[in-house]
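agent> Task received from the user: take the single chain below, predict its 3D structure, and emit structure tokens. No templates, no multimer pairing.
agent> Plan: (1) validate residues, (2) run structure prediction, (3) serialize to tokens, (4) report one or two observations.
agent> Step 1 OK, no nonstandard residues flagged.
tool_call: predict_structure(input=
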Amino acid sequence: MPEVLAEVLADKRYLDQKIDELKVAIARKPNDSLVQELLALIELRQARRLSITAANSKSVIRLGETEVTINVAIEIRNTIKEKMDILTSMINNEDSGLDVITLQQQRDKYQREYALITVGITNNDLKVTLG
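)
tool_result: status=success, residues=131
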């Protein structure tokens, strides 16, 4: 039965959560069954990641005048998010001496770009089917 990419992404995020939980449980009190379950979930997550990467390399969206694969759009979005995080850190740094309003205006510009790219990626994720 074909799955929508958004479902596969949600499943992968749930696997991420379960893997993190098992790592904590193993750190507290390791045992063979926890380790075996962790390894099995890591394999399952790998399969999900490969499916996601394959689908994202085939799908294209338009960013301004340029068409890019979803993989490229995700990388651009991640870079924009990193810039926003840096600006937020500078805004919150009492010792920076920088103009907070100017920093917020710069971050606002990135926020608009981030939102537009996220909408494009999300729309794609809801349309693409796997399998």
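agent> Step 4: summary for the user.
The chain has two domains: 1-58, 62-125.
agent> Done.
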